[in-house]
Every structure is written in C-alpha cells, then in structure tokens.
Amino acid sequence: MTFPLPLESLLGQWGAYGVYLLIGIAFGAVLEMAGFAVSTKLAAQFYFKDMTVLKVMFTGIVVAMLLVFLATGLGLLDYNLVYVNPTYLWPGILGGLIMGVGFILGGFCPGTSLVAAATLKLDGILFALGAFFGIFLFGETVGFYEPFWNSSYMGRFTLMELFNSETGVIVVAVVLMALAAFALSEVAERVIGKQGKAIRPRWRYGLAGGAVALSVAVAFIGQPSNADRWNMLEAEKQPLLDARAVYVHPAEMLTWMNDPKIVNILVDVRSEAEYNLFHIRDARHVPYAELDAVVEEFNALPDNALVFVMSSDEVQATQAWKYLIAEGVVNVYILEGGVNNWITLYGEGAFAALPTPAADALAYAIPIAYGASHPAASPHADRFLFDFEKKVVLTLKRGPASGGCG
Amino acid sequence: MATYAKASPSRAQSGAKAARVARPYMHPYLAGTLLGVVLFLAFFITGNGLGASGGMNRILVVFEDALLPAHIDRTPYLISMAGGDRNPLESWVVFVTFGTVIGGFASGWFNGRLKFETVRGPRTPVKLRWVMAFVGGAFMGYGARLARGCTSGQALSGGAVLSVGSWAFMFAVFAGAYALAYFVRKLWN
Known about the structure:
The complex is a heterodimer. By secondary structure, chain A is α/β, with parallel strands linked by helices. Chain A folds into 2 domains: about 5-225, no CATH class; about 225-385, 3-Layer(aba) Sandwich (Oxidized Rhodanese, domain 1), CATH 3.40.250. Chain A has helices spanning about 5-35, 40-45, 50-75, 90-105, 110-120, 120-140, 145-150, 160, 165-190, 205-220, 225-240, 250-255, 270-275, 295-300, 315-325, 340-345; strands at about 85-90, 155, 245-250, 265-270, 285, 305-310, 330-335, 350-355, 365. The model of chain B is unreliable at about 5-20 (pLDDT under 50). Helix content of chain B is about 65%, strand content about 0%. The longest helix of chain B is centred in the C-terminal third of the chain and has 21 residues, at about 125-145. Chain B has 2 domains: about 25-115, no CATH class; about 120-190, no CATH class. Chain B is globular. Chain B contains 10 helices and no strands. Chains A and B meet through helix 1, helix 2, helix 3, strand 1 and helix 4 of A and helix 2, helix 3, helix 5, helix 6 and helix 7 of B.
C-alpha cells in the first residue's frame, strides 16, 4: 500500500504542485479532445441528439473506478487515504439542480468552460466569467443560510455502506448500469440524432467486454481486510514494535499533552469498567472492537496530531496500534507500560497495588469510579521529573490534505 | 454534426498547413477511457481526484483579497481560503485548474481547433448567446459551490470512488438540465 504517495515529503510543496499541474494538463487535454470545448455538442446531450457528455463521463467514471478498486484490491493503493467526497445530501442535490439549469442555459460546466476559454471560444470565456460571478455571489450569500449548507452531513459515505454490500458487487453493478445507459444513448442518437454507423464502431464491444471482465476480477479479488492490511505492512512495521520505537514513556506523553501546538488523541482500549474507575485526562474510551469507527476520523486529523493508544499494560494497546497502522493512520504511539505504569509513576501511592494482577488488567485497587477526576489523571508535569528517551517523530501524512474541490 | 476519428489514428498530418485544419474529435468511449486513466492516476498518485470550481474559487479570492482584505477576514466562507496571511493559491486544486487551461489550449493548438468564435445554436443571435453563457455560468458557479464541487470534483471524482453524495449530485445535475431543456430548446436547435 505504497500509494497514494507522500508527495510533499518526496518532492516538497512546489514539487507536489508540479504533479497537480501535470494532472491538470492531462485533464484539460482530454476534455478538449472529447469535444467538450464546444457548447452545442454539450447541450445536444439534453435533446438526445449527441450523448457524448454521458458517454465520456460514465466511461471515465467506470474506468477510474475499475482501476482504483483493482489497485486497492491488490494492495497497491490504500482506499482509506483516497479522498471520497463527504456527503452533504440536500445541499448537494439543490446545488446539482441549480447547476443543471446553468448547464442548459450556458452550455458548459466549470471545467469545460475553462477548456472552451483556452481554445478561444467567446461563449466559453463569458461562461467562465459568469462562473466567477456565481462563485463570488455564493461566497457573499452563504452566510445567510449556513445551517442548510452544512445540513444532512453523512461524512465519508460510500455506496457499499448504503447498500450494505461488498465493493465488488457495487463495481459490477455500476459497470452494468453504465453499459445499459450507453445502449439507450446509442438508440437515442440513432433515432433522434439521426447519427450514422460511424459512431458505433465494433471495437466498443471489446471495450465493454473488458470492463465487465475487469469488474468481475475486482469482485473476485475482493478488498483487503484489516488482517490482510497488517500482513502487507508487517515486514516494515513489526521491527518498530520489536525495537520498542513506538512505546512512549508516560512522561513524554505528558509533555505532548501539555503542548498547545499538538492535537493529542488519547485512546483507551480497556473495558468500560476499568475506564470508569480511572482514566487519563481527555482519554477517549474506544474498545478494540470499535476501532473501525474512528479510522476515518483519525485519517482526517491534521499533520500536527498524535494518537496514543493505551491499555492496562501493553498487550491490547499493541493490538490496537497494529489495527490503526494497518488502516493507514500515522503518528500512532503506545503508552509504555499502559495505565498501570502511569498510576505507578503519577499515583503517589494513592492506590494499593493488587498482589496478583491478571495479564494486561488493572494492577491497582481503585475503590470508587474516579474517571478522570483523580489528581493522577492530570498530573502537573513540573512536579514529576523522569528521565526518558524521546520516541515521537512527527511524520507527514500521505494522501489528500484538503481534498474535494478544496 | 461532429465526426469522429477512427479507432486507429489516421495518417499523420505534418507541417503548419495541417495544423489549420481542425481534426475530428476523439471517439467518446476512447476519450472517456483516457479521462478515466487520468482520473485514476490522480487518485493513485495523490489521493485526490480532479477539480475545477474550487480552483476558480481560489483564483477569484486572490482578487477579492487584493481589493478588500478586511471583507475576507469577516466572511467565514472566505477566511478558510484567504484569511489573514493565507495565500488562496496554495492549494492543489489551483494547480489542477491552471493545468486544465494549459492542457485545453495545448490540445486545441495541436489539433488545429484554436479559433476565436462564438459557438451557438443555429437560431441564436451572438449577443443572446453571450448573455446566456454568462447567466448560465453564474448559475453553474453558484450551484457548484453550494454542492461543494462541480462536475469534475463531485460527479466525476466522487462518482468513481463511489461516494453516495456524488451520485445523488450527478443525477440532480442531469435532472435539472433535462427539466429545463424543453423550454430553452430554441437556444440550441
């Protein structure tokens, strides 16, 4: 899962921008070659005469989808690090309807108008200017209805989750749906657009067959589970555990907790009962079985965020570390010696040690449920001085920083 | 009506003379396949898809920021792009947008399709076409920001990675255009 690449770490900020520029150039060239600089050709879509818009768009979506899910299925690309537009259902639908109106009145969409303007079409230039004006109006007026603009937010919500089905099934279904849409489009072009045979060459059957075959292959390969993901990373990441490079001394964690420039996420994976008896200030209770629910959030954390996982000792915390690392989360560390070690160092003898504690279980007798209200939950760093080896090294994230139409 | 290139590239045209003859457009399924490969490479290498309206937004905000910096700092939607010392151009999507213009120009140049003209329906006066292009553009720009992405950033990119919102959005765009198409048929036919 080497892809997506950590562009900024590899090439620096401007190098990364250079890559985006090249992608944009390829995008613009393809739009122009498809004929998308010509408004009449785009508008003909809506009179069923020339279905180029639908054909190019759906072919593009299908091909990209097939390649993306083939790459994720083979473990080359990490889907968790691919930007999936978050769903804001109703603002999206209303915006889409307004755009549909703009499309049929003006004959372009924003991307195609740029290409039209670049090839000196005056209507494209005016459309682009109009789009700038519309964007300006939006910036000035969204403040009046911001609650609506932020409503019906569903986060990273995929068709797989909506239909509660395997990725492969959705991929096959999308391919079949697209082929059906193409078949209907061709009927429309023949009957309404009176287009000749030239636009229905034989080779398109080969393309369609290839797409179906590839989608079946994607379904057959499947998508990697968390265990598969860990297996792919084990050779690289297990040595970090063996060398204890990710086990952070409690005093180092406390130092980070007091650093206002760092977003600290403390993840307590113990049982709810143990968590209620005592936990460290701001620690969140996320049992191992519920870690999948926080992956999306953790992958969206800023570059200055640190995630510390902890259990009573280290066994469950190490499992949780593996889980999160396998899901692509960066800057994850384990609290050395767990909460027990924390109480030993910062408890000041408040709790009696149990004579025979179980493995990776609370080793102190805590009489009532303190939660985070006990002084040991938020010790004053200056009162406790420990020598420790610094382990945390902040690394830049891979994948999209802002994402979407940013 | 446009004609299409054959699957295999026709004989190579050479010299400046050939450049003035507009070459036919690529077949939609081939262009779509190429588009899909470009989109996949974007996701594969960077983790981001494509975009256009976001880049246009940021380019616009450069001018707003130069004219009315205090206004930017008072408008929540604009602060995230250009508040304080922030440079609105420091975003990947801006470079995709610049690239789109360059790529469109280059392809138009190589294929002999650079031409000052106003493309319009057979019965639409030039000035009406200009007005409608501007009005349509304004609707597009407004809707694209309301929907957090345009045809490129939402429909194409989000559609390919199977976002529910992007698919709902895509159907809405087509629905909006088809619903109005009959009433403005004289513009295009």
